[in-house]
Write a structure and sequence with these properties.
- The structure is a single chain.
- By secondary structure, the protein is mainly beta.
- The chain has one domain: Sandwich (lipopolysaccharide transport protein A fold).
- It is built from one helix and eleven strands.
- Strands 1, 2, 3, 4, 5, 6, 7, 8, 9, 10 and 11 form an eleven-stranded antiparallel beta sheet that branches.
- It is globular, with a radius of gyration of 17 Å.
Length: 182
């Protein structure tokens, strides 16, 4: 299997940066848990069921999970939140990892990312969308097998699937019309 890494054009990289922006290495409550969200806004989760495992310090939401914070919404069939065990005894337990089982959809304003699964890893300071990844902004579309977004460097990388190829389509804007405001 050949795997080809593709660095994204500046326009798409900026789109991904906005979708997956979370402050790196911030105090436990400073950054939002969802990509592009602020910790000053409430974090809401709606699901059919929640199981909390005290010993493992994890929360498992199942059944059409919808998580929202600010302008960012995430939808998945299941979401597991792993808390930092070291902070478990404090009143401000922090998230160390989020795993999403799909299909997964991340929406922020006019930007949408989809994949079979998703992961946020605080230690690595990265967000991942995995399997059948599609990113859209307006009519622009990029497809691949895996998206890795490094929050520290603001670098996004899309990897191709079995073919090793990433596909992008960028639609020219009508130069007589003003560019859309984000």
């Amino acid at each position: 299997m050949t795997r080809r890494n593709v660095l994204l054009p500046p326009m798409l990289a900026a789109t991904l940066a906005a979708m997956f922006a979370v402050a790196p290495a911030a105090p436990a409550r400073a950054a939002g848990m969802l990509p592009g969200a602020s910790a000053k806004e409430p974090y809401k989760v709606d699901a059919a069921k929640l199981d909390y495992f005290d010993k493992e310090q994890k929360l498992v939401y199942t059944g059409d999970v919808i998580a929202a914070q600010g302008a960012t919404k995430v939808r998945a069939s299941a979401m597991t939140i792993y808390l930092d065990k070291a902070a478990a005894d404090s009143s401000q337990a922090s998230v160390r990892r989020i795993e999403l089982k799909g299909p997964v959809t991340v929406v922020q304003k006019d930007k949408t990312g989809t994949g079979d699964s998703g992961v946020y890893d605080r230690k690595e300071n990265k967000w991942y969308l995995i399997g059948n990844v599609t990113l859209t902004e307006g009519t622009d579309v990029t497809r691949g097998d895996r998206l890795i977004y490094d929050l520290g460097s603001s670098r996004a990388m899309v990897e191709g699937g079995r073919s090793g190829r990433v596909q992008s389509v960028f639609t020219p804007r009508d130069s007589t019309k003003p560019a859309p405001k984000n």
